[in-house]
UniProtKB/TrEMBL annotation:
Domain of life: Eukaryota
Classification via InterPro entries: RNaseH_sf
Protein name in the entry: Uncharacterized protein
GO molecular function, one term: nucleic acid binding
Gene3D superfamilies: Ribonuclease H-like superfamily/Ribonuclease H (3.30.420.10)
Amino acid sequence: MEQVLRALCFNEPTAWVDKLPYANFIISDTESATTKVTPFFAAHGHHPRQLLEPPSTED
Protein backbone atom coordinates (compact mmCIF):
# COMPACT_ATOMS: atom_id res chain seq x y z
CA MET A 1 0.00 0.00 0.00
CA GLU A 2 2.81 2.38 0.86
CA GLN A 3 4.48 1.95 -2.53
CA VAL A 4 1.21 2.48 -4.39
CA LEU A 5 0.37 5.60 -2.38
CA ARG A 6 3.88 6.93 -2.90
CA ALA A 7 3.49 6.56 -6.66
CA LEU A 8 0.00 8.09 -6.67
CA CYS A 9 0.98 11.04 -4.49
CA PHE A 10 4.34 11.86 -6.03
CA ASN A 11 3.24 15.37 -7.06
CA GLU A 12 0.88 15.97 -4.11
CA PRO A 13 2.19 14.23 -0.97
CA THR A 14 -0.46 15.77 1.27
CA ALA A 15 -3.30 14.37 -0.87
CA TRP A 16 -2.69 10.75 0.16
CA VAL A 17 -6.06 10.47 1.95
CA ASP A 18 -7.87 11.38 -1.26
CA LYS A 19 -5.90 8.69 -3.11
CA LEU A 20 -6.77 5.79 -0.77
CA PRO A 21 -9.72 4.53 -2.88
CA TYR A 22 -7.46 4.45 -5.96
CA ALA A 23 -4.70 2.63 -4.08
CA ASN A 24 -7.20 0.09 -2.77
CA PHE A 25 -8.54 -0.48 -6.27
CA ILE A 26 -5.06 -0.94 -7.73
CA ILE A 27 -4.08 -3.48 -5.08
CA SER A 28 -7.40 -5.36 -5.29
CA ASP A 29 -7.16 -5.53 -9.08
CA THR A 30 -3.54 -6.74 -9.29
CA GLU A 31 -3.13 -10.39 -10.24
CA SER A 32 -1.30 -12.59 -7.75
CA ALA A 33 1.69 -14.46 -9.16
CA THR A 34 0.74 -17.50 -7.06
CA THR A 35 -3.02 -17.77 -7.63
CA LYS A 36 -3.16 -16.03 -11.05
CA VAL A 37 -6.31 -14.16 -9.94
CA THR A 38 -6.85 -10.77 -8.33
CA PRO A 39 -7.87 -10.48 -4.67
CA PHE A 40 -11.16 -8.92 -5.78
CA PHE A 41 -11.93 -11.81 -8.13
CA ALA A 42 -11.01 -14.36 -5.44
CA ALA A 43 -13.40 -12.73 -2.97
CA HIS A 44 -16.30 -11.86 -5.29
CA GLY A 45 -16.04 -14.16 -8.30
CA HIS A 46 -16.00 -11.34 -10.85
CA HIS A 47 -13.76 -8.48 -11.86
CA PRO A 48 -14.41 -5.02 -10.40
CA ARG A 49 -16.02 -2.23 -12.32
CA GLN A 50 -13.54 0.43 -13.41
CA LEU A 51 -13.28 3.44 -11.09
CA LEU A 52 -12.50 5.79 -13.92
CA GLU A 53 -14.76 5.40 -16.90
CA PRO A 54 -13.30 6.28 -20.31
CA PRO A 55 -14.40 9.62 -21.70
CA SER A 56 -17.65 9.58 -23.61
CA THR A 57 -17.41 9.78 -27.39
CA GLU A 58 -20.90 11.24 -27.70
CA ASP A 59 -21.16 14.76 -29.10
